[in-house]
């Protein structure tokens, strides 16, 4: 067993088949959230309000309003609102699909190369089908560390799915409907998304430099959300504050997808080399 394998084995008992197509699709689903930035720019370019739209003062939801009018003192008119709302839903579905396909055990080791990734199961002991047990890891300490990592990964998955559902709701129920579901969906996205990144960033902190980025994204988003709650969004630049809540989540989720996609690609490359060599 290599030193890297020994070090990681203290944090997890079993490893998934990292090269699985399922995980690759899940990683791409997370990366798909980046389409939001393209859609937002296009919708802002089509803005038809009496004043030019400003990311500093305009709310994100103004871009998805399906009718022109005055909303809380803001003159809103977004002809490309359908594109914005579809983008919200695509972003949310990408997060939900990623949370569903990327298992908790995979998240425990996706950011660290050099761990076992061959399918296998120890009869009667493996908590996850299709995972390989790590030789030499035994005792209460190893099991405790492994359990903590799996719980943290599971929590990140659940919260990512909740955040995705929230932004799907935002896309389905624009702000001009006056429905409480729009606000609830936005809060689900901001709160659950921020905490999910904090958990995942903490889990990957010693596994990849991007762990720091993901952790920072969660911290910035949560701090902005708390600031927005304390001020009621009555700040000179509410658009900036709201984007400090939302943008880091999109960036952090995409960064997580990138880490996993790179790991899956690495594993697949290694397996092809092995097959060529053995052939």
Distance between the termini: 25 Å
Helix content range: 55-70%
What is the N-to-C succession of helices and strands? HEHHEEHHEHHHH
Model regions low in confidence, pLDDT < 50 over at least 5 residues = 1-13, 116-144
Total strand count, please?
Answer: 4
Shape: elongated
Largest sheet: 2 strands, antiparallel
Question: Which structural class should the secondary elements be placed in?
Answer: mainly alpha
Rg to the nearest angstrom?
A: 21 Å
Mean pLDDT: 84
Strand arrangement in the largest pleated sheet? 1-4
Helices, by number, come to: 9
Portion of residues in beta strands equals under 5%
Task: Give an overview in words.
This protein has helices at 3-9, 21-31, 35-45, 81-101, 104-109, 140-172, 180-203, 210-231, 238-278, and strands at residues 14-15, 69-71, 74-76, 132-133. The protein has 279 residues and is mainly alpha-helical. The chain has a two-stranded antiparallel sheet with strand order 1-4. The chain starts with a helix and ends with a helix. Residues 1-13 and 116-144 have low confidence and may be disordered.
